Fold this protein.
Amino acid sequence: MNRNIKYKISDLFDKLTVLQLKQLDSNTKYKNFEKTIELIIKEIDSTYLSSNKNFYFDSKIIRLIIILTQINTYIWLLRSEISKTDKSLNNNMKISHQLNALRNIAKNGLSLIFSNSDKAAVRTNTNKEDLKGWKFSLLNE
Amino acid sequence: MNKKDFYNLNVSELIDLISNLQIKETKLNNPHFTKELNKASKDLDSLLKKKKVKVTSKIIRKIIFVSLSNLLVWESKDEMLLNQKEYYPILKKALQMNSIRNTATNSLMDDFKETDFTRNRVSKFTKTDPLWKKHLIKKLS
């Protein structure tokens, strides 16, 4: 069925990083996660990468993927901590919220490369507020 | 020996290095790692410019796994030291992730047209692998 609204490529990359993390974390449901991962892989390749415009790997694409994966992992670890203990709850919630802004900057970087004409792909929550440390120098360029 | 013959990091080794440098840049917050990241990115671009490898989501998935497993192995080390009772189960999972990551980096050498069995990393860990690990090794090969 043709849909009017589709996932943006940066959202699909983001989902792929999260599902890979969940698959690795679950020793029993890995086959269920694999089914969804394969659907996402098919969607990315058929909708975004098989067009006339060829995209070739460069260091920026690779580093943005590495950063997106690591930010999602940090958020996952913080959420896991939040679910186990109330200790440092406010601090952990705030950091995961601020990291989400950095994640959106990384996703916007990927959108710019793969779908620069699509303004709807741009994430607007990119204010990392007073977040200190957590350096991802590429996101400042 | 020809002046141009030298032994340097290939693309898959640079991806692994950049993923580790990114963890250090974020966690240790030392400008040295930002400089190293920039140097490694330049090397990566000079290799990739010649190779012209098209972006595919299967390769993206392998890069995601390298980035993810490097960070989770780093976190495991901290967790092992904090939780001595769980030292060996955490260490075992870290080494399992490490060997799957080695499968992914070996496979990336094929993807980036730089197959060289002398650079292959050891992907065998225990005598028999659990089913989830066998599954991931198959999917990331």
In short: The mean pLDDT of chain A is 91.
